[in-house]
Specification:
alpha/beta; six-stranded mixed β-sheet; 15 helices; 491 residues; Nucleotidyltransferase, domain 5
């Protein structure tokens, strides 16, 4: 390893390292911001009430649609909740979210989504009289919800920047697009993927307390008592009434009080569509990990006295967001000592013929970025558990980074042990089950969204109309579901 590259590796290790002390400091600030977000004044973390006010019991039945609008794909699911506790049947279709939609118009966005739903209905139910199918709409963007069947977009995230949508209720224009196409769907619940993840996981696991997403973006949801939600005090819901809170914790530390941002994090924030927002997310979410890697390599390449990618064409490396988190995953997964697969990856993706020492630096950089991201995610989990006084529980997690990034789960678990001071064995190895376990979640944006819709109609049937806007339409849908359930029982 040449001395100049070895020095760069040491510098990067120092730049991206996060000590146990720093993790604890971040967690303490996180707890404070969680509390602040629940007050009438609010804070950086929105802490949005979702009007999802119960966990599933397992006896929910009926056919429901689920729509998941993510940052990359659009997914439509039809889910049949059966009488078998915790059982369901599912059919689904996936549609690519065109990049041009992300900076287009609201009318184009809702029209495209309605077209996808129309295609799905026509393909699976051609010629059938369906009535009004209740839809659980997974809208994974910060939204203020005074009603579970409506929501006002606070701000776009995940690279979206569509004018005229922020600050407005997203359901009416969406339902208008459905109506124009004569698609028989009624939005029963607008939900977030974290809420869906929590509900879907709780459907099969009674110890589930938190739902998390670690993917293109990052977020968490948990069940709070309304007595703790100062911003809802005027509604007199009863202090022990449960309410899932969609934290939108990507906005943690927007004031830059504790997060150890590097010069590269500052660049990502400055050049993003929303500078000064989503500070936490920009350090841990899949959308930004590849860009962070690219910025570091480009900086080293232009560093005086450092020879990396010498006499190579780095024009592709200069293009923002040309790399994503899967690029880093592939580097970490390279099983060969001579990093053959990483070499081929650089040739294929960046047209760079990298030497072995350069590849070793890239490998170490990918590890450092991945380790930092995983360790920072543990702070949010620890903060919620600390706030609620939970010393043991399950956390359901979903998303591409959690599920596919090498060693992410182990790195996150280790950081949790450090933050919460769990005892370790004398040899430093962990030999027993963690009291707080982060587990792979059930399908939150599909099954979870359908369950939220089912729980909403169940609540309407029981006469609990708190947080319900379109009472008449949902009462009709609830009555249809009641009849459908009776028919299923007879059959």
């Amino acid at each position: 390893m040449p001395a100049d590259l070895r020095e760069q590796i040491l510098r990067l290790e120092d730049t991206f390292a996060i000590s146990t002390e720093t993790l604890k400091k971040i967690t303490k600030q996180f707890v404070s911001e969680l509390y602040q977000g629940l007050t009438p004044e609010g804070g950086d973390i929105p802490m949005n009430p979702t009007w999802c006010m119960a966990f599933p019991t397992g006896d929910e039945t009926g056919t429901f649609l689920a729509l998941d609008m993510g940052g990359t794909n659009l997914r439509v699911c039809e889910i049949v909740l059966t009488e078998e506790n915790g059982e369901f049947e599912i059919i689904q279709s996936k549609y690519r979210m065109p990049e041009e939609l992300k900076s287009g118009t609201g009318e184009e966005l809702w029209g495209y989504i309605a077209d996808c739903l129309q295609q799905f209905i026509e393909y699976h139910h051609e010629g059938e009289n369906l009535g009004k199918l209740p839809l659980g709409f997974t809208f994974s963007y910060p939204a203020t919800q005074e009603y579970i069947d409506h929501g006002v977009l606070q701000r776009w995230t995940k690279g979206f920047d569509i004018e005229g949508v922020e600050g407005k209720d997203v359901v009416p224009p969406f339902e208008e697009a459905l109506k124009e196409r004569d698609v028989p769907i009624k939005v029963a619940a607008l939900t977030n993927d974290t809420t869906g993840t929590l509900i879907a996981s709780a459907y099969t696991d009674p110890d589930m307390r938190i739902g998390c997403i670690f993917g293109t973006g990052c977020n968490a949801a948990y069940m709070e008592h309304c007595g703790e939600i100062g911003k809802l005090a005027h509604m007199k819901l009863g202090k022990d009434t449960p309410m899932i809170i969609n934290c939108e914790w990507g906005a943690f530390d927007n004031k830059h009080a504790v997060l150890p941002r590097t010069q590269y994090d500052v660049i990502i924030d400055k050049e993003s569509p929303r500078p000064g927002q989503q500070s936490y997310e920009k350090m841990i979410a899949g959308l930004y990990l590849g860009e962070l890697f690219r910025l570091v390599l480009l900086d080293i390449h232009t560093h005086e006295g450092v020879k990396i990618f010498e006499d190579q064409d780095v024009s592709k490396l200069r293009k923002p967001y040309t790399l994503d988190s899967s690029f880093l995953s592939a580097i970490e997964e390279d099983p060969f000592e001579n990093l053959t697969e990483t070499h081929e990856l650089f040739q294929r993706t960046l047209s760079i013929d990298a030497k072995k020492p350069e590849l070793e630096l890239c490998r170490r950089l990918a590890e450092l970025i991945g380790i930092r991201a995983a360790r920072l995610t543990a702070c949010g989990i620890a903060a919620i558990c600390t706030k609620k006084g939970w010393s043991a529980c399950h956390v359901g997690a979903d998303g591409s980074v959690f599920n596919k990034y090498p060693n992410f789960k182990q790195r996150q678990a280790r950081a949790l042990r450090e933050i919460l001071d769990w005892d370790t064995a004398e040899d430093g190895k962990w030999k027993r089950k963690d009291p707080i376990e982060v587990l792979a979640a059930e399908d939150g944006s599909g099954v979870g969204a359908a369950l939220v819709a089912a729980l909403t109609l169940k609540r309407v049937q029981e006469g609990n109309l708190a947080g319900i806007k379109d009472e008449k339409a949902l009462k009709e849908a609830a009555e249809e579901k009641r009849k459908e359930t009776e028919e299923m029982k007879k059959a």
